Amino acid sequence: MKSAWASSRLIYSFCTHADLPAIAAMLAKPSVCEWLFFGPNPPEVTYAYFEPLIDGMAEARAKGAAPESYVFTVRTRPGRGSAGTAGTAANGREGAFVGQCALVADDFSEGAYLIGYQIDDTQWRKGYGTEMCRFLVWFAFAIAGAYRLNGDCAAGNLASVRIMEGCGFVREGLQRKFWHIRGNYHDRLLYGLLKDDLQAEQAPWQELFC
Ligand SMILES: CC(C)(COP(=O)(O)OP(=O)(O)OC[C@H]1O[C@@H](n2cnc3c(N)ncnc32)[C@H](O)[C@@H]1OP(=O)(O)O)[C@@H](O)C(=O)NCCC(=O)NCCS
């Protein structure tokens, strides 16, 4: 399995330890964590969460096996010249840091994954969140062999709602006052997407990523 995929604008590469400073800086920001059930995190908390996932991916890949969970660092794609291939850009880490996205395996249901994405606040409202969710959907069903994706968000996270619903996720439930964080209560929206749900018009997503 290769380690990086590209769209016309972004590079998605398997997360490595070298990416953690940028991810930790992002997750230390109150703006980024406004609708998250965690954070803002001191760096050591972010490192403690991501390091086992990164090591798990590396160990699986060293054995030629598929990782259990997939964590991607997302950067802008450098110019489409000689440095513009996915491999070169990912190895060189040349693009600007955008954020991270992940497919976290469900412990109790093989082939089901929880989606997650966080984008640095300097990169919001450029359509990257929508594209990252499309990438996760494409990767999960085309590469990882998923049959189901789970998604959730605080009910007030309107951008995340737009993203998941725009990608075809079906709203499956609402858990009232599910999160009590930073002094506020938040309802939790539950979403799901089955491979069987994918519509014909979503097939072109395959052509977005290589
Ligand atoms: C939520 C997040 C991923 C959105 O990313 P983004 O790149 O700004 O999203 P996009 O530009 O693709 O916009 C997606 C849609 O949400 C809308 N939107 C974006 N920000 C919005 C906001 N603050 N309020 C309302 N709608 C918003 C866009 O207009 C767009 O709507 P459309 O589909 O009707 O065109 C990003 O803000 C983020 O990472 N936030 C912090 C972490 C987080 O909340 N992650 C999700 C956890 S469930």
Any chance you could write out the topology, listing elements then pairs?
Layout: E1 4-6, E2 10-14, H1 20-27, H2 30-33, H3 43-62, E3 70-76, H4 86-92, E4 97-105, E5 112-119, H5 128-142, E6 148-154, H6 158-166, E7 170-181, E8 184-194, H7 205-208
Parallel strand pairs: 5-6
Antiparallel strand pairs: 1-2, 2-3, 3-4, 4-5, 6-8, 7-8
Coenzyme A binds next to strand 5, helix 5 and helix 6.
| CATH class annotation | Alpha Beta
Spatial extent as radius of gyration? 17 Å
Q: What is the name of the CATH superfamily?
A: Gcn5-related N-acetyltransferase (GNAT)
Mean pLDDT: 92
Please report the total strand number as a whole number: 8
Low-confidence stretches: 81-92
Distance between the termini: 12 Å
Strand-pairing-aware structural class: alpha+beta
Shape: globular
Give the ligands present. coenzyme A
Which key terms come to mind for this protein?
single chain, 210 residues, alpha+beta, Aminopeptidase, binds coenzyme A
Description:
This protein is α+β, with helices and mostly antiparallel strands and 210 residues long. It is 32% helix and 30% strand. It has an eight-stranded mixed beta sheet with strand order 1-2-3-4-5-6-8-7, with helices on both faces. β1 and β2 (10-14) form a beta hairpin. α1 packs antiparallel against α3 (43-62). The longest helix is centred in the first third of the chain and has 20 residues, at 43-62. The protein is globular, with a radius of gyration of 17 Å. Coenzyme A (COA) binds next to β5, α5 and α6.
